[in-house]
């Protein structure tokens, strides 16, 4: 991107006319968690499995590694396909993300950018 900006500037394109978007990998939400935390995954109240989420691991990564069929798509907090209702516990997640204020108040979190701060129970039923 820096090379392209340099070329455009060299050709007289004003910087304010150049649109740029910078994408980064998932932020370090896992740094808040220093010990493994237990995650129970439910669907409509029926337990599908319980896994340990290691420090630095997202809820989605832990669930998929354990073979749980967890919904997901983009894995960076933009699409909402991994949205689950948090039944118990606390989750830290990258901001900004695609959740609306109403979804947050209703207890939804994104598993792809969420890391547990305590033991959690998440319901993957279609929100």
TrEMBL record:
It comes from the Bacteria. The keyword Translocase does not apply. It holds the Pfam family Fer2. Keywords: 2Fe-2S, Electron transport, Iron, Iron-sulfur, Metal-binding, Transport. Its cofactor is [2Fe-2S] cluster. Residues 37-127 form the 2Fe-2S ferredoxin-type domain. Belongs to the 2Fe2S plant-type ferredoxin family. This is 2Fe-2S iron-sulfur cluster-binding protein. It comes from Streptomyces silvae.
């Amino acid at each position: 991107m820096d090379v392209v900006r340099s070329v455009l500037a060299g050709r007289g394109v004003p910087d304010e006319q150049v649109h740029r978007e910078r994408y980064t990998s998932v932020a370090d939400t896992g740094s808040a968690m220093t010990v493994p935390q237990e995650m129970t995954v439910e669907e409509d109240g029926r337990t599908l499995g319980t896994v340990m989420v290691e420090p630095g691991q997202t809820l989605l990564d832990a669930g998929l590694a354990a073979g749980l069929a967890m919904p997901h798509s983009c894995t960076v907090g933009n699409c909402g396909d991994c949205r689950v209702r948090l039944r118990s516990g606390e989750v830290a997640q990258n901001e900004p993300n695609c959740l609306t204020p109403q979804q947050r108040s209703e207890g939804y979190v994104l598993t792809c950018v969420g890391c547990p701060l305590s033991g959690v129970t998440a319901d993957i039923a279609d929100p």
